[in-house]
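seq as requested:
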Amino acid sequence: MNNLIGKHRIKFFFLYMLIVSCGTLDPFKQSQKELDIKIQAFNFEFESKAFARAARFVHPDLLKDFLQKSLEVSKKTTFLENTTLDLKLFKDDQPVRLTPSDSAEDFNRSEVTIRYQVTILPSTKLKTIIVTQEWIKLKDTWVVIPKIDSYLN
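struct tokens:
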């Protein structure tokens, strides 16, 4: 009897794993999840002033400028808080609605609007800035087009 229950538990476990794994194979969810993870990782590393690590998410054509200006951001800017205000997805500049029927090919660009509470030297006053980051899909991976000057003014 215990052997029979054990076999059913094993079958139930494999059935459960199959159902769960099929849900994660949805290309739209995978692409959206990959984008979300990269946005969070880039912003965490950027705000922590780990610019060398954040640079791995930067568009290759903008990497040199990003690394040069990041030194100035490191010296002048202190990040206190951030809030993501909006996330928009686009396919070739046309807005895409978030639905499960969409596929990963249904969007290749994203705009993430973030509100920051910062201080920027020489001032010590708390300042609110709003930055819209543009993320694009480049060779099947998401990269950011940073607006690093926004953190210096």
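The two ends are 73 Å apart (CA to CA).
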